Amino acid sequence: LTGVNSKGKAIMKMTNISFTYPGAPKPQLNNVSVQVSLSSRVACVGVNGAGKSTMIKLLTGELEPNQGSGDVYKHPNCRVAYVAQHAFHHIENHLDKTPNEYIRWRYANGNDREALAKVTSILTPEEEKRLLEPIMGEFTDAEGNIKREKAVIKRLTEGRRQLRNDIEYEVEYIGKPGQHWLKVNKLMEAGWEKVLKQIDEAIAMRATMFARPLTQVNVEKHLEDVGLHREF
Hints:
Layout: E1 10-19, E2 29-37, H1 52-60, E3 71-74, H2 88-91, H3 99-106, H4 125-130, E4 135-140, E5 146-151, E6 153-162, E7 167-173, E8 176-183, H5 184-189, H6 193-211, H7 216-225
Antiparallel strand pairs: 1-2, 1-3, 4-5, 6-7, 7-8
């Protein structure tokens, strides 16, 4: 995985996460911490109702933790596929497709079409309104002088660059032509976290597509690699 030099380093983790289903009298999970690395091979074991599926959904972004709960982290170059316990959750609208066709439909054009429906990827009206608030940035005037002033971000371009100890994303401002970059922490503080997750997913997906194009033959090979029969 690009950017990860140790197989023991956490590429997904959640820390002190609590979650309560709407209307439930008590939390399903309370202060749960878990992490996964490249060397992890994990099986979740427990009685029915213990919260196994809930924990996995929180880790993969299918559910949002309680407000004020801990943090959920995924490395920006990591891509995660979630196969629901009840398979029809994803495929009930694709019964006319073969498994191979469904995989190619879901990941066509470098995006995971099912992931777009994740709760953690959908902006609420309040969050959309917050993205219109001005944010402090640095701009260069005609004389080459750097000025600090607030401006509204029009969009994130999907440009991303790795610095020594940080990550920056390219942004377009309203009324401020030129190329501008902002650090990831500043964007997250301004409410762009969900948009950053979508951009990270798209960048990781495109990188994979260059290495292994999404063709019928490559999907068959991948299925064989994980012990499944190729499709005929």
